[in-house]
Amino acid sequence: MQVILGLGCDRNTSFKTLETAINQALLSTKLKEKNVAGVATIDKKNDEQAILQLVEKQKWPILFFNAEQLAKVPVPNPSEVVLKYMGTPAVSEAAALLAAETTMDDLLLEKYKYLGEDGKNATVSIALLREKNETR
Q: Low-confidence residues of the chain, pLDDT below 50?
């Protein structure tokens, strides 16, 4: 089973906080790092050091989406705060679904929120990446 991780985080979140959030999210779904086919987030995070460090360490491809693309995706946990600062009501859930080219039916983990020791929040969502010929 291959999955896409949708990631969101506060600006300047530590690598440890992001990595812990991902590990806990994977554990909660009984998935492992080897199941991750890639990650996705908002284009405003294209310089976020923890995310860049993560994908380099794990050798995971990363996709960036703009706020307009993310805002078009229906999600179970929209946030007014995220909308205010990012211009879209969701980052992690919407990015995971867009990157996996799927719908909420394949959202294995809704927005998992983790507050790190650095006082920063990280969110992780997990979407199933289906084979192109696989039916729902």
A: 133
